[in-house]
Automatic annotation (TrEMBL), chain A:
Residues 866-878 have a biased composition (Acidic residues). SUPFAM superfamilies: MIR domain. The lineage of its organism: Eukaryota, Fungi, Fungi incertae sedis, Mucoromycota, Mortierellomycotina. It is found in: Endoplasmic reticulum membrane. It is a multi-pass membrane protein. Residues 46-63 have a biased composition (Basic and acidic residues). This is Dolichyl-phosphate-mannose--protein mannosyltransferase. Its EC number is 2.4.1.109. The chain crosses the membrane at residues 95-114, 142-160, 181-202, 208-225, 232-252, 264-297, 318-336, 629-648, 669-688, 694-716, 723-739. Residues 370-424, 432-491, 499-555 form the MIR domain. The gene is POMT1. CDD domains: beta-trefoil_MIR_PMT1-like. Belongs to the glycosyltransferase 39 family. Residues 1-77, 866-885 are annotated as: Disordered. It comes from Linnemannia exigua. It holds the Pfam family PMT_4TMC.
From TrEMBL, chain B:
Residues 23-44 have a biased composition (Polar residues). It is found in: Endoplasmic reticulum membrane. One of its GO terms (molecular function) is dolichyl-phosphate-mannose-protein mannosyltransferase activity. SMART domains: MIR. Belongs to the glycosyltransferase 39 family. Residues 344-404, 412-471 form the MIR domain. Keywords: Endoplasmic reticulum, Glycosyltransferase, Membrane, Repeat, Transferase, Transmembrane, Transmembrane helix. Its EC number is 2.4.1.109. InterPro entries: ArnT-like_N, MIR_dom_sf, MIR_motif, PMT-like, PMT_4TMC. This is Dolichyl-phosphate-mannose--protein mannosyltransferase. Its main location: endoplasmic reticulum. The chain crosses the membrane at residues 65-84, 119-139, 151-172, 178-198, 205-226, 238-271, 292-313, 607-625, 645-663, 675-696, 717-742. GO terms for cellular component: endoplasmic reticulum membrane.
Amino acid sequence: MRNGHSSAVDQTGVPVYRGTQAAAATRESSLEHYSSSTTTTTRDAATAHHSLDKNHHSKKANDSDNDDNDKDKDSSRLTKFKSRRSLPWYQSRELQIVSAITLLAFIVRLWAIGYPDSVVFDEVHFGGFASKYLRGAFFMDVHPPLAKMLIALTGWLFGLDSSFGFKEIGMDYIEPKVPYIPMRLMCGLMGVAVVPMAFYTVRNSGHSIHAATLAALLVLFENSLVTQSRLILLDSPLILFTAFTALAWVNFHNQRQNPFSDDWFIWLFLTGVGLGLSGSVKWVGLFIIATIGTSTIGQLWDLWGDLKITPRSWLNHFIARAVCLIVVPVAVYMLMFEIHFLILRNGGDGDGFMSAPFQMSLGHSLKDSPLSVAYGASVSIRHQGTKGGYLHSHPSVYETGSKQQQITLYPHKDANNDWIIQKKDGSIPEGLEYIKHGDVIRLMHIFTHKRLHSHDHKPPMTEDENHFEVSGYGYKDFPGDANDEWRVEIVESRDEESGKFLHTLDSKFKLVHNNMNCDLFSHKVKLPKWAFEQQEVTCMRSAVLAKTTWVIESNAHPSYPADARLVNYKKPGFLGKFLELNKVMWDTNAGLVESHPYDSRPSAWPLLKRGISFWGKDQKHIYLIGNPIIWSLSTVAIVLYVAIRGLLFIRDKRGYNDDFNGLREYYELSGGFFFMAWTYHYFPFYLMDRQLFLHHYLPALYFAILLFSVTFDLLCRFIPNRIRLIAVVLITAIAVYSFRTRAPLTYGFEWTRTECEASKVLKTWDYDCNQYPDTYAQYTVNAVANTTPIENTNNNDNNNAIIDAFERINDELVVSEGEGVVDDVADVAAAAPQEAEAAVAEDAQITDPAESKLHDADIDPTFDFEIPVDNDVDENAEVNEKSSA
Amino acid sequence: MGLARSHAAVVDVEDEEHKATLATGSESTLRQRSTGPKHTSSADTTKDDAPKKVITSVFTQTEKYNSLLTLAGLTAVAIFSRFYKIYAPDEVVFDEVHFGKFASYYLRGSYFFDVHPPLAKMMLAAMGYFIGYDGHFLFDNIGDKYNDNNVPYIGLRALPAFLGAMTVPLVYMTMREAGFPILTCALAAFFVIFDNMLVTQTRLILLDSMLVFFMMCSIYSYVRFYKTRNNPFSLKWWSWMIATGVSIAMTTSVKMVGLFTVATIGVAVIWDLWELLDIRRRLTMQQFLNHFYARAIGLILIPVVVYLFWFYVHFAILTNSGPGDDFMSTEFQETLKGNTMADGIYVKYGDNITIRHKDTSVYLHSHKHNYPLRYDDGRISSAGQQVTGYSHEDPNNLWQIYSDSVDNTKIGKQVKDKDVIRLLHVATSSWLLAHDVASPTMTTNEEITTYSSEEDGSRFNETTFQIILESGGDKLRTMASNFKLLHQATKVAVWTHSQKLPDWAFDQQEVNGNKNIVQKSNLWLSDNIEGKNASEIDQESVKAVKSRSFILKFLELQGKMISHNAGLTESHPYQSAPIEWPFLAKGISFWTENDTRKQIYLIGNPLGMWVAIASLAVIIGVSGADLLSRRRGFYPLNQDVQKRFYYATGFFFIGWMFHYFPFFLMGRALFLHHYMPALVFSYMVLAAVHGFIFVEGVDGPISDPGPETRPRQVQRAIVPVIAYATGALLMVIHLGSFLFFAPLSYGTSAIDVAGLARRKFLPQWDFHFAK
């Protein structure tokens, strides 16, 4: 489908043997069209020329091609559109322009970066992670570590106190002396750097200075990019590295006539580094990898079809790209994780996500235990199906069911995790008798002398009829009853021996309740407060195997021989940790399906249907919204590109040869690349079920802006420079005006209600204009009112009766409404939703392992499927009935 | 692939060049022989002295008889394999629960809801009708005895079994029409006959055998249509195109999976059109557009009409109220005889009503207990009276409905859409209120509480709600109207979700104000008016059954089908991921009988499927190597072999891809039997690949000559002994594997533990009675 001409070759049915005709056939088109979206007409047409082609139109194409090639044998047809740089670099006009624009970018992006002086939106997460890096406390986040480490590094350089936790939106930065300005500056500077990159990317793709300037200015005055780069967020590093990669790739592409030269290698290598860096910020960086990857495959395909290039030489091309674009990025990515692991040496709130061996590398340690387990040993038993921890009991009772002692899973090491294994009758044999597969045992909790027990009671949380309560039952010297008996069934073992005998760590086993034939089970369901929110343990019939497997983790017995074989977890190497962490990140990421007040679907993004509320206080508001002018221009450029390419595609098929004297290829080359990049940064989001936000579109927007500048260049092709300049100025002026109109939302500045109303282009933009006063003067009035101290309800609620508080809050709410004064109480009320927004916010960095129940994809298979809708689901119910029958 | 296709598309019309090829071809053929070790085409030698006349068929009469005999034999075997002991087990097996039940509903005419389109179920019902079944049995549980209940189940099972058997001759004929030698066609048919999954699934009252049958009809018709392409707009051309269109519509009317067949045919048609657009085909734009319109009629318009027609029949049959009512809107339910909507009565201001949440079926409830001032996470509440969702009837569920005017002038008037109302909790005499305080469990949502009517009324504005009716006319009616309660001051909707509140609220459900006001779960309905019921008040106005336009009914049902289908995300013990299917990593337990230890376990023919997946890999390898070498100017394949490889084998391969890969994008629970359509394609590919490796050359030309077609070369494939030998070997392996697993597929004989253990090739195969 790549082109129509090549088919003409085969039409004759004669396999054209090009080997002997090589000399004749090597009329060389010194240009190679790499972009995958570019048709490679020239070469194919050329070969067609030598074939028995009879089609007049191809013939014509050949002739014109050959003419071209005769004229400038050495220089590409493309390069004649390129600028000729004659001045030394430091005097070049480009540099002056870039410097000016960059200076402007400094002002626009960093203006009043210290405001607001409190935690905004996802700074909660990324600031918090910085603190954790400084403490070395392990945490789990769905994003790779690079940008977070950069933020932490900045914090460290400027003396961030690691005890400041960035706990909630609105926390004050000034009082605890948080160096938030340098941290924001780090992100802000990265945002500034994107601007010159946009310029050079367009410029080095061979477009005019006007187009390049326009691209840079539009990137500069894009409200959403400004907002996003002024805060401690990951997007500005991501966009920077993505832009850098694109630039490096364009530069590499420009070296295509000097393969394997120094410049060629440098840019190829830098592209690889850029890919690695982008991927190490957020996984969205994978999209630029896909972009470059497709482009590379296109290049290799073209080189392969170029018969002048020997297979040997092609292999060199291949290897060079494989090393620089696969090995280098992977190495960079892994290096970031290596540093991440080196910094985070201690346990932290992310431990609960990781497997036991992983945790062993986080400052937790486990003593070596003897391999074989005998009756009378005191053991700790870890659950395998979840990361919930050890089988645990403590002297508190269930408030439901039997009201007997609680049995839970507890993630940390504790003496209450220790159990003594007894024989079926509760005795402990003299001497060592090792436990075999199929033995019936009892487990006695050492501290409370209760035995692990299950009976026909409903468990505290799970309502399913297949589940039964598990409790601690008995007292010291209690002979026990039959419901204390559990059968050990080893389900997975490391070797034959550990399949027959219960071995520490090596034997994974089920505990089957002898009477009820249910398996000791646990899942990610938290018990209520009265059980300290530990994880529920039940006994379940016909459960999936994974959540009924347990393993002995520590094992001690007074009469073990001194030379007993000891075992311990094999500490995972870097690779093991790396792979495990990435898998957990992936699962967590896929599990972020909760809805969020400000989430949006990809279809809404190119039309800028709504933004994200970041922060609001004192009648000021930060709201992420794009510059509608730039946004619509970029979207129009995309549509235009598709329309033009589609039209030309069909015209090609009908035999029209729209070459436009080489112009077409030239635009398809750069425009095609930017369009492909946009496609790759946009469409994959449609496949994601997780919550998505407007800022996920920003990398795609960047490429759409570049595409617009290419379109602009095309439109202004035949216009004199002066008019072109006027067009640039005009477009920029409109964009700046539009930027200025929404600037208060971008920077969180003062605004009035009427101006706010006027700025709403679409009525789906959901920032609330009613929060703004009618005049700017009102702000001063309110500021005075605010200084009057009002007693905070938070501080003195312990003594007053419920009614009092209710009335008081009530009154104050009324007051605040009546006078338009935002007082503290209202703040409490208003802040609450915002906190929550932060908590579930955008990429929802889950730090609390308990939260992970949201992500628990493994639901018990024993669901009652009552919906009489689907056949397939209903099969379920039937199958279940059968299995339990 | 592009190169090959464009060539093939023009080969028949541009014969001049073809001749040129022949003239200069001898040298290149020689070279070809040296570069391509296989496929020294036998045709080459005969090329020059071949008769230059229009030929209609390349096959001799003997071959035609042989082919017919083979076809008959295979069909007989297929029928035997499907009907063997079809009476056993005489119990409801697996999804017969549903499809048997649906057939019964059709016979009764009571409305039901299912995620699949109606055709196959109506066919079953028709079958039941013809054999005199009256729909008295509801197929409630797996294992229910048919004989005890006097159900003519053998007749019902015969329909899918017959269509399942008929798939085999279709496969054979499709392959034959695509130009493969008898051996290759027989191989494909043989593999389809003796696949355990296809056998199990077609012997029972299930939809998949119809699906596969119609799918093969579509493919067969399309191949026939494509072969008439040299005589466009001829009667034959039209007939086969319309046959294709009807078949794809029938496929889709069985299950939405039929859309994959539509996509397969669609891609082929689009490609074909694209080639027609090529200037070298010398079609004028008008001629091209004619082609386009013809296909639009035959392959879009007619299928849509057929698809709609079945829904029309569906609605025409199901005229009574039934178990599917609740899935539909009020307007829809009112078209069914005996629906409950007629019981609804209009709510008037001043009435005491109960308000029930549509999704979770709890009543809006309040009681004389307050929210705790401080929650466990440290946030504070308003400490106002609790408003919760309560699942039982209770005096505390009663709310009196008031208008927003203070003087209550509206009392006695009916509540209309978009009215602003206030709700008074009757038992505690307090107003329902929402305000900007975070709710107990969701900090993003607003707290809902009440405000005593004895207070000064300063919070009047916070107690007003707008009532927005989503269905059921423009007046609030019990049972019928679904409505949202939109808080006037803060624009949140009263909402509840299955999250339980802690002890302080007696484990009742949380009710809060949802900022996302468009959510479907915001809907409530009024259950009843205290002390009034329809029979007392509206005795005279017994509602007549209303009518509704077909297209509205269709659109509603189609929308519900899609959304329910997408919502089937709950996990199932026998569900599997698409990646596992070709490798047969997991099966489905259909039926077990404890006493006799018999069971039916759905699993494909393992050896056959593993060979099939290997042949798919061969396709990718060969086409990849071919593309790369042609890019370098080498032509390893004989031109005709290559054409057949891309056109026929490639088409089946695309069929496999389109019936397989889309499942990766689906979030719903998936099962092994979803692979059935793809499996049939993979067996066709397997046979074709076998032919590609062992058969030399191809038979051709196979498409009908047209008026402009110049004389064409006759080419004959040579089927060497080795092809027969390997074909036989494959058949023996496949048959052996089939027989080995047959007891599990038919469920007619028990296997002992050791036998099951022997059959457990993979540890994930969870047979029953295996220990």
